[in-house]
Amino acid sequence: MPDKRVSVDDIVGELHDGMTIGIGGWGSRRKPMAVIRAMLRTSLRDLTIVSYGGPDVGLLCAAGMVRKVVFAFVSLDSIALEPHFRLARQAGSIDALELDEGMFLLGLQAAAWRVPFLPTRVGLGSDVVARQPEIRTVMSPYDDREELVAMPALPLDVALVHQNRADAGGNAQFLGPDLYFDDLMCQSAGKSFVTCERIVDTADLAAFGSHHTQRISRLWTDGVAETPNGAHFTSCTPDYERDEAFQKEYAASAASAEAWQQWRSDWIDISEADYQRKVAAR
Amino acid sequence: MNPSRADVCVVAVAECFRGDGEIVANPIGTIPRIGGLLARRSFEPDLVMTDGEAMFTDVDGAVEAWNPYRTMFDVVWSGRRHVMMGGSQIDPFGNHNFAAIGDMKQPKSQLLGFRGAPGNTVNNVTSYWVPNHSPRVFVETVDVVTGVGYDRAAAAGSAATRYHELRHVVTNLCVLDFETPDHRMRLRSVHPGVTVDEVVAATGFELALPAEVPVSREPTEAEVALIAELDPKNTRGKEVPE
Lengths: 282, 242
Description:
The structure holds two protein chains of two kinds.
Chain A: H1 8-13, E1 20-23, H2 33-40, E2 47-51, H3 55-62, E3 66-71, H4 83-91, E4 95-98, H5 101-113, E5 117-120, H6 127-130, E6 136-139, E7 147-152, E8 156-166, E9 172-173, H7 182-187, E10 189-199, E11 223-226, H8 244-252, H9 257-267, H10 272-281
Parallel strand pairs in A: 1-2, 1-8, 2-3, 3-4, 8-10, 10-11
Antiparallel strand pairs in A: 5-7, 6-7, 8-9
Chain B: H1 5-16, E1 24-27, H2 30-41, E2 55-57, E3 63-66, H3 69-78, E4 81-86, E5 89-90, E6 96-97, E7 100-102, E8 107-110, H4 117-123, E9 125-130, H5 150-156, H6 158-161, E10 165-171, E11 174-177, E12 186-190, H7 196-201, H8 221-230, H9 235-239
Parallel strand pairs in B: 1-4, 4-9, 9-10
Antiparallel strand pairs in B: 2-3, 5-6, 7-8, 10-11, 11-12
Helix pairs in contact in B: 1-2, 2-8
């Protein structure tokens, strides 16, 4: 088994301007925030972000790194609307491809299976199809001759996901209630990077949960980094829940350019080690 | 004692699920959730419900099955579900919007996004919940079509209409449905103490009005007690005040 351990900086070093980057998790749950924070300290730009969106999308938008977002929602869960994302959308500063949550899954699945599209009735009649010419329909070749949506593949250049545990070879394990679509993100990407709360010996993964929780095989991963508390301030159940007080302060930073600059200098323009020390001291 | 408006709404929500049997009842929102639980605790005991996240849980909270998001799409696309969604705008044929106000490409106000609304409406039974019935919500034309109404489904063809059913719209004033020849929204009942004129004034388009408009059913004594048990902190009274 290869040793795929890397640093967060190694991961960010693999990212380039203009890339399409898929980010795992869902809303404000199990987001690879340590990597997002590291990205925010670079000058990356023109990114296309594919995400069941949460603060990952809001932060990258606030930092001006995003050209386009592919999304079905961008939410902080306990705060329904992501304020930084809203500002970017309302200012017209980013392009969007809007999808139904299930179409999003089908787009990733099509990319993972290396087919150009998957048929579905999802989207028919809605403005996802009617007002976005990039989403097309297809006629069933069978006797029903029904018109269905041809959900196009959503291939990613890079996938970034956060898991509870992993081994040095890049096998990863989720211990919370939902995998979300982290496995599909990895399978539809040219390169996939997993961060996790702890890297453990392969044989020890079984001590944390049944084998059914070992859902991402090293077949699909190119690098693994240990980032304790690395999903903060999003939830990483059962290791920790969302830091609601911190998230409130984050949301308030969308109130003005000054508020954002202050939040940024307090929480982004510092090292990850300093960030975690400051969080622990709160 | 007169029932509270919130309790009337809870019962109206529960009634949406009457006859649904062994499917997932997925009411989203404060009063919808209480209404769904009430239906399961009383006249629809076979309903399957989530814990709000990734589990199906029974009336005592025991986990019946794991149902992560991926599996929920299997449920939706098989049709074994009845969802109740909130909406920022709804038009006369049940087209629904909670994505954005204004232009979709550069909205005046970015709201939730499409979420699961397009897939829900063409795959499983859908009802809507509107806690603030007003002409701002009930509009002639929605800014973005997220949930698919009867006219848009028909225009999209048989794959869109095959499993499409909008059941009821429950609001703080009344219950609406689409049981008219052309599926134009119809006033089904007014809540006790609400007049037809009030509903008409609070609706931004022409409603189909039956000659006699019934009054929404009041909760029974047993239901009042169950609702109080299901919502001891009266969160429903905050969503729909007196």
